[in-house]
Amino acid sequence: MAERRPVADGLFDWPPGNDAPALLGSGCRVCGETVFPALRDCPLCGTPDTMDALRLRGAGTLHDFAVAQRGPEGFPVPYVQAYVRLDQGPVIYTLLTDVDPAEPDVQIGERMRMVFEDVTTDGEWTLVGWKFRPERGNDV
Amino acid sequence: MSETVHVVGVGMHPFGRFPESSVPELARDAIWAALQDADATARTPEIAFVANCYLGFFTGQSDAVAPIVIGRAGLSGMPMVHVEGGGAAGSVAFHQAVLAVKSGEYRTALAVGVEKLFVPGNPSISISAIAASGEADVATSMGLTWVGGFTMSARRLMDRYGWTQHDFALVASKNRAHAAANTEAELQVEISPEDVLAARVVAWPLTRPMCAGAAVDGAAAVLVADSETARQLGGGRHPRVAGMGVVGGQYISNRVDDSRPGMLSMDEAGRAFALAYERASVGPEDVDLAQVHDSVAPEELLAYQMLGLCAPGEEATLLRSGATRLGGRVPVNTDGGLLGRGHPIAASGVAQVVETTRQLRDAAGSRQVSRPDGRGPRVGAIQNAGAQGGPSGGVAVSAAFLMTV
């Protein structure tokens, strides 16, 4: 089995630590805006060098989703694409897991929770990224 | 100093699948068609802008694209500038060409859009290539596709405006009917709304004919000139670029609960048209025809609203009335649009100018638009959008042009 690495550097802790899964975003000291991926300069109030690192915990609500029946190389279809609004602000692109693409049993606004899983391979590496799954009764 | 800018020459390499032709070979046909249309020579263009997005992806030639494309057409000596912008790249090239002449710095400028995406036997690689126009680390490397992004927005807008899947089929069928009258179009076979609905689902509610295909090649070119130079060139009518607005995606706070990020959050198009209408001193009621960015059918409906052709929520009513078909009050995508003429990404924005120019010259043949009084059209609108990511998380570049005669 190929070695695993993140889809890109600097987006989440790698290798994963003991903390709960989190994305590496940032928050503005001046206006309070939160963003992902992390920036140094705030895109809302325009103040330079004013954003502090902020761990974005993997809890949010489903914003939009679509089932892809055609995809790029390395993405067997069908698969479920989505936007999730994190409780801490940013709306981020993600893949859904534990959802059947043939009959996606999810609703806009539904509570979602993040996990890190294998996303695709580039021949040499297995690429790991964030996915969300419905937070059903058995979750904390 | 601000010169009036005219489109004096237009040319195309047909859109379709041309595995035997290279990017420079496709571009060469369009460039020379445009120069000859203007009775111009290789020495006429004083600056050239070349839109191309994926030559680097397929061949590794990610720089020096403009000098290679221009030089292999036998032109030389002028500044040659490569521009990007996904599906709007051709509009960025045209915008820069117009600005170059408008500034008074150059008398003429050439805008070229060229793309090559078809690889025999490998449809996935075309989808991988166009993903390069999106944000790699946080989106496309995790499988975000253009159609997926549009679909997520379209479902939201169906709820908001009462659009139906059948409306999307009507858009696709209309544009394919227009393309059937265009010998340079990728898809010249008509398709009924019923057959559009029965086609394979790409991402519900979009079926295959409601989405522009990724595997297509083509090129388009236009030559623009100031008024004095335009009088010395070509025999035909030279439409003016009366107004334009090109804007970038704008960051909106995630504490605002709107539909962002979404490919169809076209606030940018509204801002672009507000600028274009103001500068052209015309209004939406003056528009005789429009070319819009219909990479998926729902985009055309939203463009009706952004152009001011109807009030928000009236898009489907306008479509169903037949007003936007050839023969209707304000035909949209008269050459077939992205769904019919085809969408070789960087070439599309320039092709929109080619079609608008032909219509305003009264030289569009069997798809010629006429006003109720039987005369040729006076005002043509163009809307285009492209690239994903950057400040808005959605569309990165949005362009509006108004051309008049």
Description:
The complex is a heterodimer of chains A (140) and B (405). Chain A has 140 residues and is an all-beta fold. Chain A is 0% helix and 46% strand. Chain A contains no helices and 9 strands. In chain A, strand 2 (22-28) and strand 3 (34-35) form a beta hairpin. The radius of gyration of chain A is 16 Å and the shape is globular. In chain B, the strands form 3 sheets. In chain B, strands 1-7-4-2-3 form a 5-stranded mixed beta sheet, sandwiched between helices. In chain B, strands 8-11-10-9 form a 4-stranded mixed beta sheet. Chain B has 14 helices and 11 strands. By secondary structure, chain B is an alpha/beta fold. Chain B has helices at 23-37, 55-59, 65-71, 89-102, 123-130, 146-161, 165-179, 193-198, 227-232, 267-280, 297-307, 315-320, 337-340, 345-360, and strands at 5-16, 48-51, 80-83, 108-116, 201-203, 206-207, 217-226, 240-248, 289-291, 379-388, 395-404. In chain B, helix 10 (267-280) crosses helix 11. The A-B interface holds A 7-8, 11, 33-37, 43-44, 64-73, 75, 79, 81-83, 85, 89-95, 119-120, 127, 129-130 and B 123-125, 127-128, 131, 136-145, 147-149, 151-153, 155-156, 200-204, 251, 253-255, 260-262, 391, 393.
